[in-house]
Amino acid sequence: MRDPNQRSDHPLFVRPWIFIRGVPSMDFLPPEGPLEVAFAGRSNVGKSSLINALVGQNGLARTSNTPGRTQELNYFVPDGYSGQGDDLPPMALVDMPGYGYAQAPKEQVDAWTKLVFDYLRGRSTLKRVYVLIDSRHGIKKNDDEVLTLLDKAAVSYQIVLTKTDKIKVAGVPRLIAETLEKIKKHPAAFPEVLSTSSEKGDGLEDLRAAISMAVGQSS
To answer: What is the reported pTM?
Structure first.
């Protein structure tokens, strides 16, 4: 079992990370510069917890017991760069608004959907989206709708199973195989499924390696 807060050997995750901006609409997007990877998932999938575990900082992405709290695109970058001239971070992590929260007003859901699709379709620096799926439930209807949206936007994405500590160990390989079968029909899906546990630290190094390769920083 790995310590979820243990520092990674991957260069992108050695230094501390900081929050730089919340983006409620496309007008507030930072200028295109560093390559970006984004995280998408249902409102209760454990997205903030996974981001915190990924960078080894408990308080970076805000977690909440209230689904739907993240209503903006939240940007995080490694600390220690001025952001001026050539002194840019090597990459940015983008926490996307959670979906599938039935209690949110329809106008709010529509606004989130438009923001997300506009971002996906128009961001040339976006290299990959990691779609988080709760391992206890697998791919649900609204997850599949998001995968179709990503296919339509022609954005490369990869499935990441979360909360694998909540299911039997023997069930993980079977779930991975079932998920791979389900994404065969999705042309933009990366043909490898990752499994993680923020609480136990399982799979975090695999996810860090995948992100590093996606942005060309694997060495």
So the answer is: 0.91
